[in-house]
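To whoever picks this up:

The parser on our side crashed when reading a file containing two proteins. I've narrowed it down to the boundary between the first structure block and the second sequence. Both blocks are reproduced below exactly, byte for byte. First block:
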Amino acid sequence: MLDPAQVTALITREALLLDRRRWREWLDLYSEDCVFWMPAWLDEETTTSDPHAELSHIYYKGRHNLEDRVWRATSDLSVASDILPRVCHQVTNIMVEGADSATAAFCSHVYEPKRQRQRSLFGRYDYQFVNQAGELKIAAKTITLMNDRIETVADFYMV
């Protein structure tokens, strides 16, 4: 069984690293074969269930794909690295749900200095964890975005 204090520390650390743009350290929280997924909604009650056959807002399989996304956001060679928004995550209601899983509620506040616009994204996180060499790693993170009418891009560091 997972230690609730250890899970809470990992999830809140993840949010802080994203807010501070310490994305290399954030990547270290994930296993090599991780899945990072934000499914789309099929209707008012159901999200997509197969990222290979249905629409997703974000889907990265393998840490190398997350690393590529971080590179794009930091390289200054991509429009993804244009003036980045400021983000502040709030994570709450963290609960261990099984031997290797947990859930949490989140709200992230996003401010885009270039457009002088702010917005909030909120929803639920569902995690799967794996123990690698005595260290708890994120094996899968599913982000269920409740307010999925996204005016512009929602990138990995915003949700």
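<<boundary where parser fails>>
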Amino acid sequence: MLRHSTEMHDNADLVGGVGGSHLDGLIEGLVRDGFAVAPGFAPISLVRALRKEASERDALGEFKLAGIGRRQDFQKDTRVRSDRTCWLKAETLAQCQWLEYMESLRLAVNQSLFMGLFELESHFAIYGPGDYYQRHLDAFNGNNGRLLSVVLYLNEGWQSDWGGRLRVWPNPDASSVATEVEPRAGTLVAFLSEKIPHEVLAATHERYSIAGWFRCNNTTADWLDPPR
């Protein structure tokens, strides 16, 4: 159970471009359900800029088949996932704007929920027709430092019958689905990395998104984590 501050900060004004109602709604959903969905979180201008950049980078061959696990546990297994990814490194204006939005979310969550979110890692993801990612957790027993996962969708004009939904379960033991989210442009999904299983269903059209993970700071005198 998340600890929720009784002294909620006032988000009535825009914070880093993010509307206060979006931030408050995300926090309330995380407290209540462990996940939250915010349609229209990012403006269409930013969505278009990020989508354009992803398409251009893909044309240059910068996207690679995605893997699972970190460091020595990393592997590629198309039986589990078949999307392609390209990491974000704050190299463009659009990426910096995305990171500003995420910084606003990080500060709001830390102030309200005391989660200790430290740093964000994120990548573009492209799912071609038929691609998928089977049910999984983004973290397991704290083995990669991920605390809060986020997904931003970059698909204008997405139709329901194209598929490609994000399927979400309420907890690791659940057999019944809590919700399914269509990958519509500007929608942000946030969920607890260790607690909320999820799955990307196959689509009939190409599907673009950004996936990100806020991590804690596990750095010690002998270990740098998050890595630089």
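After patching the parser it read the second block fine. Residues 145 and 221 are 17 Å apart (CA to CA). The two ends are 31 Å apart (CA to CA).
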